[in-house]
Amino acid sequence: MSDVLAALGLIVASLAAAGAILLPAGRLRSLAMLAALILFPILILGDQWHSHQIADLRDTPMRLVLLGALAIIASAGLAYVFRRWPVLLPLAVIAALPFRVPLHAGGDTANLLVPLYLVISGGVLARLLPGEGTVGGPAPEDALATGGGGGPPAVTGPAGPATWVPRLLAAVVVLYALQTLYSEDFSKGLQNACFFFVPFSLVYGLLRDITWDKKLLTLTLWVIGISAACFVLVGTVEWATRDLFWNDQVIRSNEFHTYFRVNSVFWDPNIYGRYLALVAVIAMSALLWARERSTLALLTVLIAIVWFGLVPTFSQSSYAALLAGMVILAALRWSVKWTAIAAVVGVVGTMVIVTIAGSFSFDRINIDTSGRANLVSGGIHLFAQRPVYGYGSGSFPKAYRQHVETHKAPVSVSHTEPITVAAEQGLLGLAAYATLLVAALWTMGRGLLRRLSVARAAVLATFVALLVHTMAYAGFFEDPITWVLLAAAVALAVESGAASSAAPGREAEEAAT
Q1: Average pLDDT over every residue of 205-220
Q2: Which of its termini does the chain have fewer beta carbons within 10 Å around, N or C?
Q3: Cα dist. 375→419, 422, 423, 426, 484 in Å?
Q4: Half-sphere exposure of 168 (CA within 13 A, CB side)
Q5: Contact, 131 vs 260, CB < 8 A?
């Protein structure tokens, strides 16, 4: 595929993805989603056409045809299932979020969300069929919200700060594609756009109109809990047998450390730890406001299982993410003022202890964080060289090797999201990223102290936990959980606004419950 054709296809795909985010429900949005669905695998295939992996497939065309046929059959089957039982679409998306299949692309191992891509394909095809079904009833209600009564009337679209989340998200997708055009690593930028930004825009488009009623929220919690328990079981077996399924780098690292890190079915222990930390935050959100003894018992057991699985990951970033989520929940459940004081005292106390122990130095921090301090300083150096527009989307590894004079940190990716955005996209990308975060946090937290919704509290706490994790391990836009949380935040904010408009007299009663 020529560079011109690849660039044109990437722009069209990003515009179609933006349409999936912004366009109202209807035939036009369905066609935009279909265009994005068709384009992103074609662009990846064209970009990697001469790689030895694709060459192997081209040398055995029947294998390529068979894989394509299986994908089409699976997508068509899922489309039928989602049309017949619409509630299964969001559940399938959530169930598929953690499953990555290691594949080789461009000489590197890419852990691709193949199950999620099939679910996305099935969901998009289901949208094209006549007589589109809906998830939830015409009178949605927040299953975990305090207070009782019926649900608010149906709402046609977001209002207030929720209006800006899809607009900014679409702008981020298009801007990333545009900044790929001058990237020092065009292929990497195209792969990031087509593996993550474009298909995850379809995830947002599929979930943006979902009604998160009591049934769906309960089923979602069951899916998350069962999945996490299964992952912990696999991780426990790995820890007991001292044998990992994959990732040679972690296997070699375990041979030289006194501790043994596990990754379950995940490629990276930190990604495994991130998932468990987010599950723990969600479960704790439900536990703090649960009333029935059976619910309290089940959630307590789930949290204990998740913590038991999280410990042997030895993921510092996951521990920090979990603490951040707990801080948000404590503030909403008890006191914002005292939680803030406790958090500040904890951070300052930790810094004092580390300083007294003689570990608060750049070299010590760099060693303790496996070279990430060097990546941060190198990323700042790259940003200083091109502060306005950066080195282009996906360019961080290549630009780091070419423009940062250091041999202390072998770099494949950056581990701090804002540093990555600043180095690759400059102030343009950094402004879009920061503005999206502000709009998202505003949407998630608006009115929560006045009218508590446990579902919205869970989304806010989980999003903050994910955000903290990306400060030490990056992967904000590359994690589909981010897009699911944004879609759920907007939908729940719309429902909450409708409930306030429909029954303003109940706000004081609900806040006091």
Answers
A1: 91
A2: C
A3: 9, 13, 11, 16, 29
A4: 24
A5: no
Structure tokens at 439: 């709009």
Distance of CA 27 to the CA centre of its chain: 28
pTM of the model: 0.87
Count of C-beta atoms within a 10 Å radius of residue 353: 11
Bridge partners of 111, per DSSP, are: 102
3 state DSSP class of 105: strand
Q: Give how far Cα 435 sits from Cα of 15, 45, 81, 155, 201, Å.
A: 20, 33, 38, 25, 18
**Please, which residues bridge with residue 110 across strands?**
103
Proportion of the chain above pLDDT 70, given as a percent: 81
Task: Indicate the residue type of 220.
Answer: T
Rounded to whole angstroms, the Cα distance separating 205 from 201 reads 6
10 Å CB burial of residue 269 (0-12, 13-18, 19+) is buried
Torsion of CA 400, 402, 405, 411, to 10 degrees: 40
At which residue do the structure tokens 């790259």 appear? 382
Residue type, 334: W
Closest CA to 179 of 347, 408, 342, 10: 10
Q: Which two tokens stand for residue 464?
A: 């903050």
Closest C-alpha to 191, from 106, 102, 96: 106
